[in-house]
Structure to design on (497 residues):
C-alpha cells in the first residue's frame, strides 16, 4: 500500500475516543474479544466433549486420539491464516474478510450446539478453521492501519488489543466451561455461537463510524486475467479434493490417523517453503537475506514455546480432569476453569512486563535473549509438574496448585515471546513479504501444534514423568543454546533491535 493511501486511511479514522486511542480500536477490541471468547470457550470443553463417554454426553473417542485432534485443530486454525491473509490482500480486503470469517465461525459453533455425531463435529471444524483463518490475522492487520507510521501510540494499541484477546479467553472457560461441563456440552457451544454473534453485530454496527476506510482497500488486487486463473485453480482444487475424499475415505485410506499425519507434514512443510521462497526471492536484498537467516532460530524457538503453551489446553486439560483433586477446600472445581488461568495471568502481568522493559530501556534483553528466556520458563513449567508425581507417585490425585504454578510460569515465558514475536516478524521479514507477516508469525503456532499432534500420543499418566521431563528438558536445552547463540543471531539481524 502506498504511503498516500495509508495516510488517507488514518485520516478517515476518528483518532480519539477509546482510552486516548483511535475509536476504531474499540470496534476491533470487542470483535476480537468475542471471537476469542467463542474460540477459547469452545476449546475449554471440546476436549472433554470428544473423549467423555456417550452416556455422559460426549462422543466417546479414544483419549489420545482426542488430544491429537485438538492439536491438529489448533494447527489448522492458524495455518488457514495464510489463506485468509491472501484472500484479504488480493480479493476482498480485511474488513470483509473479518465479516465473512465471523459468519463461518458462528455457523461452526451452531453446528456443535446441535446434538450430533462425529461427522457434524468435522463439519463444524471445517467452518471454524476457515472462519478463523479469515478473521484472526486480518483483524490484527486492521489494528495496524489505525495508526500513522510515526504514531507513538501504536505499540500501546497492540497491547490493549492483546488484553482484549485475553479478556475473552479468560471469561469464556468460566461461562462456556461451567455451562458446558455442568449442564450440557451443546448448550456451552451455543453460548460460544452467541458470543460470536454479538461480536459480529458490534462489528457491523460500529465499523462505518469507527473504522472509516480502514480495512476497505484491497492492498494488491488481482488483475482480471489473474482472477480467472485463480478461480479456475480454486475450482479445480475443490473438485480434486472432493474426489480424493470420496475415493479414499470409503477405501479406508484416509483415516483419522493418516489425516493427522498429513497435517503434521504440512505444518512443517509450509513454513519451510516460506523461508526458502523468502530467501531466494530476487526481491529480497542482501541485508534482508541475512535477517531471514536470523529469523530461522527465532522461529524454531517459537515453535518449541507454543508447543508447550498449547499443551495447556490438551495435556494439562487432561491432567486437570484425571490427575487433579477437583474437590478442593470445599470448592467443586470444573476442569475447564483451568483454561482461564493463562489469560488471567497474562492480564495481570502484561502491564508489569511492559513497564519493566521500558524501565530497563537499553539494558533490556535483546530479542533472541527474550526468546531464550521464554524457552527456559516454558521448560520449567513442565518440570514443576514432575514434582507431585515424584513425591506422591502417579496414582494419587495432586493439588490443583501445581497446575496453577505451571500455568503461571509459562505465562512469564509467553510475555517474553508473544508480544515481541509479531513485531520482530514485521521487522525481519523482507519488505516484499510484509503483507504476509501476520500469517507467518501464526505459522509458528501452526507448526507447534502440528508437531503436538504426534507428541501427545505418547502421554499417559504412567509415562508422565518421562513425558514432562523430556519435553521440559528439551525446551531448557534449546533455551540455553539460544542464549549462547544470541549475540551471533543479533549480528545477522543487521541493526534490528
Ligand atoms: N493466545 C494468543 C491469541 O489467541 C496468541 C496466539 C498465537 O500466537 O499462537 O491470540
Ligand atoms: N494467552 C493466550 C493468547 O494470548 C490465550 C490462552 O491461551 O488462553 O491469546
Amino acid at each position: 500500500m502506498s504511503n498516500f493511501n495509508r495516510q488517507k486511511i488514518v485520516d478517515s479514522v476518528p483518532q480519539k475516543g477509546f482510552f486516548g486511542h483511535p475509536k476504531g480500536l474499540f470496534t476491533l477490541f470487542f470483535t476480537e474479544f468475542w471471537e476469542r471468547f467463542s474460540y477459547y470457550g469452545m476449546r475449554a470443553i471440546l476436549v472433554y466433549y470428544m473423549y467423555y463417554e456417550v452416556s455422559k454426553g460426549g462422543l466417546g473417542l479414544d483419549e489420545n486420539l482426542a488430544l491429537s485432534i485438538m492439536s491438529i485443530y489448533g494447527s489448522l486454525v492458524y495455518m488457514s491464516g495464510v489463506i485468509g491473509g491472501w484472500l484479504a490482500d488480493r480479493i476482498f480486503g480485511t474488513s470483509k474478510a473479518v465479516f465473512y470469517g465471523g459468519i463461518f465461525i458462528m455457523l461452526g459453533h451452531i453446528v456443535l450446539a446441535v446434538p450430533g455425531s462425529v461427522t457434524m463435529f468435522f463439519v463444524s471444524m471445517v467452518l471454524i478453521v476457515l472462519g478463523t483463518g479469515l478473521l484472526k490475522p486480518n483483524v490484527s492487520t486492521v489494528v495496524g492501519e489505525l495508526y500513522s507510521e510515526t504514531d507513538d501510540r501504536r505499540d500501546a494499541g497492540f497491547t490493549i488489543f492483546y488484553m482484549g484477546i485475553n479478556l475473552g479467553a479468560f471469561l469464556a472457560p468460566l461461562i462456556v466451561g461451567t455451562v458446558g461441563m455442568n449442564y450440557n456440552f451443546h448448550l456451552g457451544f451455543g453460548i460460544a455461537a452467541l458470543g460470536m454473534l454479538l461480536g459480529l453485530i458490534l462489528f457491523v454496527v460500529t465499523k462505518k463510524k469507527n473504522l472509516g476506510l480502514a480495512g476497505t482497500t484491497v492492498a494488491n488486487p488481482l488483475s482480471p486475467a489473474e482472477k480467472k486463473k485463480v478461480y479456475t485453480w480454486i475450482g479445480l482444487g475443490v473438485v480434486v479434493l472432493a474426489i480424493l475424499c470420496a475415493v479414499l475415505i470409503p477405501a479406508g485410506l484416509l483415516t483419522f490417523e493418516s489425516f493427522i499425519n498429513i497435517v503434521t507434514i504440512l505444518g512443517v512443510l509450509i513454513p519451510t517453503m516460506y523461508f526458502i521462497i523468502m530467501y531466494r526471492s530476487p526481491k529480497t536484498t542482501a541485508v534482508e537475506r541475512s535477517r531471514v537467516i536470523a529469523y530461522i532460530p527465532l522461529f524454531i524457538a517459537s515453535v518449541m514455546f507454543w508447543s508447550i503453551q498449547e499443551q495447556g489446553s490438551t495435556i494439562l486439560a487432561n491432567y486437570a480432569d484425571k490427575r487433579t483433586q477437583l474437590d478442593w477446600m470445599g470448592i467443586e472445581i470444573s476442569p475447564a476453569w483451568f483454561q482461564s488461568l493463562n489469560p488471567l495471568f497474562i492480564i495481570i502481568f502484561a502491564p508489569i512486563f511492559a513497564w519493566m522493559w521500558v524501565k530497563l530501556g537499553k539494558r533490556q534483553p535483546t530479542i533472541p535473549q527474550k526468546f531464550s528466556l521464554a524457552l527456559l520458563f516454558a521448560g520449567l513449567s513442565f518440570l514443576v509438574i514432575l514434582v507431585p508425581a515424584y513425591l506422591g507417585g502417579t496414582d494419587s490425585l495432586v493439588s490443583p496448585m501445581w497446575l496453577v504454578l505451571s500455568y503461571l510460569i509459562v505465562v512469564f515465558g509467553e510475555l517474553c515471546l508473544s508480544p515481541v514475536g509479531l513485531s520482530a516478524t514485521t521487522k525481519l521479514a523482507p519488505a516484499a513479504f510484509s503483507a504476509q507477516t501476520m500469517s507467518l508469525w501464526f505459522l509458528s503456532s501452526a507448526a507447534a501444534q502440528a508437531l503436538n499432534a504426534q507428541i501427545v500420543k505418547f502421554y499417559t499418566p504412567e509415562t508422565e514423568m518421562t513425558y514432562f521431563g523430556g519435553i521440559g528438558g528439551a525446551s531448557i536445552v534449546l533455551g540455553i543454546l539460544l542464549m549462547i547463540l544470541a549475540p551471533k543471531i543479533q549480528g545477522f539481524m543487521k541493526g534490528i533491535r
User: Anything to note?
Assistant: The CA atoms of residues 350 and 415 lie 7 Å apart. DSSP finds 17 helices and two strands in the chain. Residues 36, 165, 306, 418, 442, 445 surround glutamic acid (ligand 1) (CB under 6 Å). The chain has two domains: 1-221, 267-497.
